[in-house]
Amino acid sequence: MKKNLSVLFVQCAPSQLDSSFYSELNERTKGRISLALMNDGDIRRTQLDPELGIVPKFPPLSEGYPIHHVPTERHGGLKKLIALIARLRPRMVVVQDQVWFSKISIALVCRVLRISVIMRSDKNELSSRSRVGWKRLVEAFLVKVLFDGIAPVSKLTASYYRWVDLKKIWWFPYPSSKSKFSRNDDYTDVRRNIRESLGIPMSHCVYLAVVKFVDRENPDGIIKAFHELSNWRTDASLLLIGAGPMEAQLKNMVENLEIKNVYFCGYVPYSTLQNYFWASDVFVHLAWVGPWEISPQDALVAHLGLVTSNCVGSGICHLEDELSRFIVNPDDPVAAARAMNEAGDANIDALFSRAWTSVTARFTSDELAVWWANKLVAEGVFS
Known about the structure:
Layout: E1 7-11, H1 16-28, E2 33-38, E3 67-70, H2 77-88, E4 92-95, H3 100-113, E5 116-121, H4 133-146, E6 149-152, H5 155-160, H6 178-181, H7 187-198, E7 205-210, H8 219-230, E8 236-241, H9 247-256, E9 262-266, H10 273-278, E10 282-285, H11 295-301, E11 305-309, H12 313-318, E12 327-328, H13 333-343, H14 348-362, H15 365-378
Parallel strand pairs: 1-2, 1-4, 2-3, 4-5, 5-6, 7-8, 7-10, 8-9, 10-11, 11-12
Helix pairs in contact: 1-15, 2-3, 8-13
């Protein structure tokens, strides 16, 4: 085992999004990071997604960094993980999706071993379990007492925990893949082929929703908004990518309202998801609850226009200043339709170019790895 390990990331659910970041960071730190995966020795996603009703299909994790396999928390993985930390003695441990008991236990052990411990979190005021008043103050206080720093997914999380010391903030967003979603030499052919396969004219403005068919993500709200939009323009189509218990209800809704140009494309694996982004022009996400939501961010990397609800963290963070007009209430289909209509304007490049540039520069796996590598050097964790 490496005696000079700088950072040990601890994760329960394998993440294709984070995997590319780990690989990039390991290369930049010359092999000084590792991942402890608490998944019973399996690098695949094995948990059933209760909203989709299936196990999501993801490509194998990126190679290029060491993985230490540990049992899940319910199979005694915490004790094994603590033993691993004691043996490896990294300079820093980053806890992420563990239950609170495990996070607190790891933090206390690291304190005894004089290892810096950082907590990654996406929790913010939009979260279903967010706290208010004195309960939030107590939660924020405990986090500052237990952990040496915080790794927030966004500025919304840093604000929620009232963490203002930039030296102790390790920005750790869910990174998008620039190599996957950025338009390349295949873009034009893929765009044409997808549209032809569905019977969508190349002249149409295509609106895309990658959404679970559950109430939380408000897929019926998207259909209502598109119904309003179709009263104003006939050159529009809606692609619905996803699955879930509301599927039959949504199809009946489209049929009963006699809405044209709505295409249910089913569940699309992550490996080919970019093809539907490239076939589209504007991404729509009107969730009722969405502390972050990665797909709107992916849409900006793919150079799409974007309309989200004011309950979607990535929308709030990425659609700032003059672009905030593309953030709407999830229960206002008329306002959503107006925003969709403007976002689908022929001058879409001028409208969203600033957001495209910002996301590509700060929220992709390669740029995030550069930031972390520099931060590790600046804080003396890696030299």
